[in-house]
Amino acid sequence: MDKYNQKWVLLFSGGENPYAVTLGQTAYYSCPEICIDRLWRCHEDAHKKQWQRDGRLKFAVKYLWYHISQGYDKNPYEMEAKDAEKGLYPK
Q1: pTM listed for this prediction
Q2: CA angle 85, 6, 67 (to 5 degrees)
Q3: 19 CB contacts (<8 Å, ≥6 apart)?
Q4: How many whole angstroms separate alpha carbon 12 and alpha carbon 14?
Q5: pLDDT digits (tens, 9 = 90+) for 41-67
């Protein structure tokens, strides 16, 4: 499930719009559906698979740990999602 035009998502972006956050099996996008392209959906779909694969607690704790200790760009979950945009992530 995806939800669009969710302005609260911008709290995580530092005001950068558009932006998205995936929690469990729902991706929340800061702008209307028309703004979201295929690559962005692939990225957020990868996060949905990660949540499902690792479970809610494990994913949330590990994601935050990686984000704090390694930063967004070196967070393995983000790297995997970026690979999904390129079609490198297993389906």
Answers
A1: 0.88
A2: 50
A3: 9, 10, 12, 13, 29, 30
A4: 6
A5: 999 999 999 999 999 999 999 999 999
